[in-house]
Amino acid sequence: MPPTESNPVLVAEDNRVLSDVLRFNLERNGYAVTTARNGLDAMEQLAQHPFDLLITDFQMPGANGDEIIRFARQTLQLDELPIVMCSAKGLELDMARLQAEWQVSRVIFKPFSMREILHLIGELLPRPLPLA
Q1: Which residues in the chain belong to E strands, given as ranges?
Q2: Half-sphere CA count of 36, side-chain side, radius 13 A
Q3: CATH code: domain of residue 110
Q4: How much is the pTM?
Q5: Cα separation of 124 and 82, whole Å?
Q6: Is residue 129 part of a domain?
Q7: Is 30 helix (H, G, I), strand (E, B) or coil?
Q8: CB–CB of 48/71 below 8 Å?
Q9: Which residue has better confidence, 58 or 129?
């Protein structure tokens, strides 16, 4: 299914392969995807465009996932934006703090399956309508 204007998703991921795989699978399922390869680009995208969901890596150049989320919540006042944080650093993250302080919808650990991420997004967002 081609991307639609409904359910715009920002994927902030510095790993090009993972970013491309996420984009491909999300677009194939009808989501409009914008990618950011570093934290500063992600913050710029959030400031300039409305998104229905943010998927962010924790460890990225420019600004990490914690800084991106703080920017979204405090500076931009995006209190209702669902946020999924992905990380290979599972043992180093304080998941309770991320969820309590920044209202992170879910923290998932790499490697994860595309089925898992699509299921999670389906729980957080309504399914995009097909183009007429």
Answers
A1: 8-12, 32-36, 53-57, 83-87, 106-109
A2: 29
A3: 3.40.50.2300
A4: 0.86
A5: 7
A6: no
A7: coil
A8: no
A9: 58
**Could you tell me if 97 and 68 are in contact, meaning their C-beta atoms sit under 8 angstroms apart?**
no
The C-alpha atoms of residue 124 and residue 29 are separated, in whole angstroms, by: 14
Reported as a single tens digit per residue, the pLDDT across 37-86 is: 999 999 999 999 999 999 999 899 999 998 999 999 999 999 999 999 98
CA–CA distance, 32 with 50 (Å, rounded to integer): 11
Average of per-residue pLDDT values in the chain? 86
d(CA 50, CA 76): 11
Q: Do 66 and 58 meet the contact criterion of CB atoms below 8 Å apart?
A: yes
- Determine, yes or no, domain membership for 63: yes
Residue in 12, 31, 58 with CA at minimum distance from that of residue 124? 31
Give the three-state DSSP class for 54.
strand
Using CA atoms of 109, 64, 14, 118 in order, give the dihedral in degrees to the nearest 10: 40
Determine contact, residues 58/89, Cβ cutoff 8 Å.
yes
pLDDT in tens, 79-92: 999 999 988 765 56
Classify residue 83 by burial, with Cβ atoms within 10 Å: 0-12, 13-18, 19+. buried
**How many structural domains is the chain composed of?**
1
